[in-house]
Amino acid sequence: MDYAKIAPVMGSLWSPIAAVSSHWRGQDNAQICVSIGGASIVAERPRVITQIYKTNHSHGMIMGSGAFALNFPRADQLDWIDRFGMFSGRDGSKLEGLDYRAGETGSPLFADCWGWLDCRVVNAMDGGDLTCFLAEVVDGLTVSEGEPLWWRDARQRMPEEWMRAYGEKQAGEVAVSRAQMSSIDLTSPSWGMPLSNVSPPP
Ligand SMILES: Cc1cc2nc3c(=O)[nH]c(=O)nc-3n(C[C@H](O)[C@H](O)[C@H](O)COP(=O)(O)O)c2cc1C
């Protein structure tokens, strides 16, 4: 297949940028994610799906804690991409000096942002190279007016130096995904998430 034929369609599917934060074994962390979607039409039971690559430190933290928060930057908070998306929490704290607090799930909620959602995982699907988490939104807030930051806009405004570093990092990750994406475990649909995470119907 010629990817160029579908590139505009595929490119339109990326979500607003979020810093997906997590708390596990005494560590707070956050990573950038653009693969988020709404997953409920029931206003009193909001849900999201979020796709996290297995090589990320956040993946283990979310699997361990069964929770994460989605912190959405305002359009002017371009620096989040470099801070949370280019380095791993394995190599040092990314949240040092940031104004945040622990939410109901224990996940970090950023004070200065466009909005946030505190989420508890209720199920997970293995994608080989990534896990697609289905999560219940237990708390949330729209903090600012205006628009969140979209990847399609952010990439036009990113300094050349960041774009080059992003391209190099991405090339390594694409190679890992290519090797792992066929190895899907179809036998563990719930990935050991305790079903007690699912709230009873109100
Ligand atoms: C623009 C951008 C979009 C990204 N989208 C995703 C994504 O959708 N899912 C994901 O798991 N990682 C995504 N990443 C990669 C992680 O944010 C990145 O690998 C991060 O350093 C992982 O941090 P951690 O090891 O502390 O978890 C994205 C990175 C950037 C810069």
Structure keywords:
202 residues, 9 strands, 7-stranded antiparallel sheet, binds flavin mononucleotide, alpha+beta, 24% helix
Describe this structure in words.
This protein is an alpha+beta fold and 202 residues long. The protein has a single domain (14-141, 148-185), classed as Roll (Pnp Oxidase, Chain A). The protein is built from 5 helices and 9 strands; from the N terminus they run αββββαβαββββαα. The protein has helices at residues 7-11, 57-65, 79-85, 151-157, 160-180, and strands at 18-24, 27-33, 36-38, 47-53, 67-72, 100-102, 108-110, 115-126, 130-142. Bound molecules: flavin mononucleotide (FMN). Flavin mononucleotide is lined by residues 29, 31-35, 51-53, 56-58, 81, 85-90, 151, 166. Flavin mononucleotide binds at residues 29, 31-35, 51-53, 56-58, 81, 85-90, 151, 166.
Class in CATH?
Answer: Mainly Beta
Radius of gyration, taken over Cα atoms and rounded to an integer in Å = 17 Å
Identify the strand order in the major beta sheet: 2-1-5-8-9-4-3
Main pleated-sheet profile: 7 strands, antiparallel
Instruction: Tell me roughly what share of residues is in helical segments.
Output: 10-25%
Morphology: globular
| Coarse structural class | alpha+beta
CATH architecture type:
Roll
CATH-derived topology: Pnp Oxidase, Chain A
What is the total number of structural domains?
1
Helix count, DSSP H or I runs of 4 or more residues: 5
